[in-house]
Amino acid sequence: MITIGVDFHKRTSSYCVMRKDGTVIKRCKMENNTENIVTFLNKINEPKQVAMEATYGWGLFHDTASPHVDKFLLGHPAKMKLITESESKCDRYDAQTISQLATMGFLPQAYAPSKNSRELRSLVRLRSFLLRQRVAIRNNTHALLDRNIWQSERPRSFKNIYCDRGKKWMRSLTISPKERFILDELISSYERINDQIARIEQYINKEAIDLPETQYLRTIPGLRTSKVNIYTILFEIDDITRFRKARHLAKYAGLVPADNSSGDKQRTGKLVKRANHTLKTAIIESVFAALLVDKGLKEYFRTVRQRANPSAAIVACARKMCYAIYHVLKEQRHYRPFPPAAVSGPLATLER
Questions:
Q1: Cα 287–chain centre separation
Q2: CATH 3.30.420.40 applies to domain 2-104
Q3: Half-sphere exposure (CA, 13 Å, Cβ side) for 252?
Q4: Does residue 352 surpass a pLDDT of 50?
């Protein structure tokens, strides 16, 4: 089979065409557009596979090239050390290295979700982006109030400054014209982002209404009444069969500690950094709701809390919930809660 290694960039890409024995047939560099890519691939009349690194914008190239090749390989960028740590950094050499790795079967592959899955992920990530903006606006509002109004002179009848009474009070404040203008803009931006988030949530619910996996996730405490987190978890995982064990999913979500063991020394550090942080946030947020209704999880939290800080206990509960999500999706069944006595045991029992 012919292997085509691609060093992909926004405007142009470098190609290296290689036979199974390692012989380079052709090297070239072309502008990225549909006509160039399709024409180049169709000129090769032998069975062929394309290999590329999962760089920014890989999805467009994947959707364009996939119908015209027998196999598409997506390389994991963090694991392709031959390119990232090479002393000779050149597009043509990078394309050749990708071809060599793919030809020998040593290319560290990354998961390539479908176009529909990528679009659904983009929806929930856009919502997360807007939520962060909303938090930033709220923080800026509190900073403005702190430099104009004493804490003791503020009303104590509301906790959220952006509730209806809070916005009414802020609009009635007598402050300098410049600060008044800034505050009005902050209030306007907050309301606009709130409307955007509501529209996105409505659209996500409409698009995901027929997904069968939601009926199983809805049985998990913390996700029973979830509006968006349940879809965030589902879209970010996409295909549960790509994870061989529950711990692999937990590592993907960044909920397991880094392992630096060697010989007889067993060392665990902080949580792994290379993780899907959108999935991690959704699971941790769901834990707080689950602790209110799941007695077994609450007892487990108290057990961990006795020997660690509250943050570590929340992460431990999130890891337990992640294991539950894995088994519920993998086995297509309803959630079976652990009895309170069982969750106080070793973490290994959670993977059963």
A1: 17
A2: yes
A3: 20
A4: no
